[in-house]
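Standup notes
- HV: blocked on the assembly model, inputs below
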Amino acid sequence: MANVTSFYLSRVIGNKVYSEDKKVLGKLLDLIVDAKNIRPKVIAAKVKSGKDVQIVDFSFFIIYKEKGQYVIETRNLKPIDVQREDTIMLVKHILDKQIVDMNGRKVVRVNDIRLAVLSTGVYVIAVDIGLEGLLRRLGLAKPLKKVLKPLGKSIPSRLILWDDVEPLASPRLDLKLSTTYSKLSTLHPSDLADIIEELDKKTQAYVFSTLDEEKAADVLEELDVEAQRNVLESLPVEKAADLLEKMPADEVADILDEIKEERAEELLNEMEKEASEEVKELMEYPENTVGSIMTTDFIAFKTHFTVEQTIEELRRLKPEPDEIYYLYVVDNEERLCGVVSLRDLVISEPQTPLYEIMSRNVVYVKDMDNVNSLVEIISKYSLLAVPVVDDNKRLIGVVIINDIVYELLKVRKKLV
Amino acid sequence: MPQIAKKQRLKNILLILGVIGPGLVTATADNDASGIATYAMVGAMFGYKMLWGLFLITISLAVIQEMAARMGVVTGKGLSDLIREHFGVKMTFFAMITLLIANLTTTIGEFAGIAASLEIFGISKYISVPLTALFVWYIINKGSYKKTEKFFLALMVIYVSYVISGFLAKPDWKEVLKNTFVPSFSFNSTFILIFIAMIGTTITPWMQFYLQSSVVDKGVDVKNLKYQKWDVFLGAFWTDFIAFFIIVATAATLHKHGIVIETAEDAAKALQPLAGKYASALFAIGLFGASLLGAHILPLSTAYAVTEAFGFENGLNKKMKEAPVFYGLILLFIIIGAGVILFPNIPLIKLMIIAQEINGILLPIILIYMLKLTNDKEIMGEYVNSRTFNIIAWITVVFIIILTLILLIEPFFGV
């Protein structure tokens, strides 16, 4: 009899459970852990005795090793009630299922689970996602190791610490965690989007629905078309519309172009009028025109504004960084007549009106121009953004360099 | 009121068109090289005698495909995902070994089809097979399979010519009808083997995986499950409608004149009532399309199924270094599939039929997994199998197992 300090779940599941006088009490089916702790502790075991399956208190259990095999012994099988919330069943919810590896930022499948035996109890410490885990489950790990050892080779094993694991709760698995996705939401939106894209459609929708609104809007922007479509079609209309309102109108127009027309209508109707009008206008532009990729979230100031007024206005609006590359100046008919930079504002006297400091030859494009002409202009004049005007030279939008890069990538992907 | 009814009907049609696709595409791909060879063999060897079998298989096919599609719609997961999550590593390993054997033999059958069809045009297999193998590898790697798929499917429309040929051959319709509904059976191994091959080519293990992931990719909503059902049923009907006429056409031409199919050229003769001297060319083009489609689908869907089950990186958007197992499997399948055909004097038609016999024998294993999954309330919720479906599927399983057993004991008793 040897003490055990740590063991793999697969080595004990399905084993017989013995009483202290070595009588067989049943078979171990699953271990249940308390997920509220950072180190989840095993609190109960699912044991099958005869035809009955019961959940019993784990504190009476000991595990030791005899002749190379793990022996599970218990003083008694005392049934206990475990609450459903915040408990994880290791076999049912984790083993063989997909989890998120927070370090690798990837969705991976769990081949085995590593547990540690301490004086205070048994704890989950890591999950095994490597080849060794698979072979162990097939009963091939040990024999293969023996063969490979003389050759100086080993089987690659990959363990992820439990701290770096996010279980994928979903309604299908019937797993309820109050800490759901607290780890996930710390990720950068584009990393999170990559992970969500890897999930199946149901889990995708579920994970997405647990994100807070700000995060959800950021992630939605980063998702690929298919995932965007799936998420928008499975979320409740009101919630989806709220998200869309938080996003730039040009992004929304792009997304709505891709989803079912019926659903797009529904979403537009649900959105606030102002936001949806903007989107609708953008959606009317044919593909490959400047209008279809421009953003309508831009800042423009009237010619007679003073530098002081302008700066005050900027403080009030707190625009996004990519909205203040250039500040456009328009006349009373909204016609584009100049551009000022932040530098111009900073170095000028507070009372100077904008028309005195603005640069009058602004490079601009028309909304119905082809996207290709934009690329030329941007590279020729090394611009970060280009203003878009309609036939009456009224300023109606801005194209930011990011959107053009995206557009170019899209074209390249299509060609491949 | 009629206005509303009309609107409703229009809406229904739109909904059906929205979900249609996976079932119909899978069904068309089901009539692959080995399928054509097998049905032709059935007709040539046994005339109309197995038509009743095809009729019953159609029902099984519809039921089993619907199970796969329903699993896809309800869980949003692929079949191998579900197998892994609910049966653990050992049982998954067993299922995957089964699938690998079945799919590898089918892949060999597809390359046999490529060789056989191009031989009709006088192209040596030593040229056609390596070149197509390279082509398949190139198309898959470029990720443009989805685009080329439509082209292959279009080539397969040629099989509609079997329907016309079947009529022009003036079969004895009374015989046809009788044999479709009245079973007859011979207890000799040739009959049983061909019968198993007929089941194995109509209901294949790979189709279940392929269909389920197509449905998942399409993202059909549970609300539209009943429309998905019609897509699948229509597909099953379409597959066997063509199969039926292949058998009738070959029975009325080849079987009547006692011609045994040994080469693709022989099988092509069934199209003579329609195409005369162009029969061979017509047959060859169709067979080539079917084989090429299969040669893409099988390596690809096997690689997806296995990597999904064991959690290896997969996907055509990954680089070869990132997903070595995935690309390795695809490559292995193409190399073995094409390699076997290059053995001198290998009988191509026979090879295609053997592939289907193996598929038929292995099918019950995959079906049992599917039955377990579709009856699990935790997975399917309220959408578990109905009793009728269970009975039909289980009868199929038991029937194939009995046939296999007879096959095994037959040599000892010499029945």
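- HV (later): unblocked. The mean pLDDT of chain B is 85. The first helix of chain B runs from residue 2 to 19.
- Next: hand off to the docking folks.
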